Amino acid sequence: MVASAVLFGFMTVTIRLASKQLHAFEIAFFRSLFGFVFALPLLLRHGPALFKTDKWGFYVMRCCIGIVSMLAGFWAVVHLPLAQAISLSYSTPLFVTIGAVLFLGEVVRLRRWTAVLIGFIGVIVIVRPGAADFSIASLIALMAAALSGTVAISIKYLSRTEHPDAIVLITTGLWVILALPAAIPVWQWPNAESWLWVILAGGFGTVAHLLWTRALKRGEVSALTPLSFLQLPVVILFGYFLFDERLDIWTGVGAGVIVCSNVYIAHREARLARHVVTDKNVAAETTT
Length: 288
Prior knowledge:
Radius of gyration: 19 Å
Number of helices: 13
Shape: globular
Subcellular location: Membrane
Protein name: EamA domain-containing membrane protein RarD
Oligomer: single chain
Membrane topology: Multi-pass membrane protein
Helix content: over 70%
Structural class: mainly alpha
InterPro entries: EamA_dom, EmrE-like
Order of helices and strands: HHHHHHHHHHHHH
Transmembrane segments: 28-44, 56-76, 82-103, 110-128, 134-155, 167-188, 194-212, 224-243, 249-266
């Protein structure tokens, strides 16, 4: 999880570096393209059977939502300070909690709803609507987080029957196709430096995604979630030295509130999951 968070941070930095020449939408296309290339070795492990699924329609639908989220997120990374863009992306678990209730029928009780509300207070602190330095880019970053929450819900649904590597490979492949129409109107061929950044963005993104899924498979969400926020100090450090960006007090406070809210939500979900497993084991022992 630590490696995943650091690599996601590196990916964000390479996106900003590539934006010196390329539009955010073209960067999203190349990130998808090279991300797919880096994911192809999964076929060596599983073979073409990895593409066999009866849920192609669902994959296409979730990838359409996912590519809009990616385009909006990349645009925000290019037009916002890195720390602010990443901090707002941490609101995704808040939207996931809401979506789990609406689409998966999960039961969320008062304490988790309170954590979600506190998390959105942190979002308001960062965005500061009405302030002199308010930017529409912050709302686009928030939209990207909300759509990313929808994608996370779809992954929960797919993971019930689909192999995690199949989800990564099929999703990345569809993103290449769906990202191209947005990239064509702003297309220009990358120079040598930009080629380096977009290739690294694809590699960092895919490897980080694979590490993330395996971390969640091996460990508890409540223990791993705090480690995922190590992405923030990475982008703060690179933002300072490469782009002369300093963390403002409002982004720092808001990010802290959102992180604490997410950690609590993950902790509660893990505790509830353990209770469900315990209750099932007790029931099984009783019936036998």
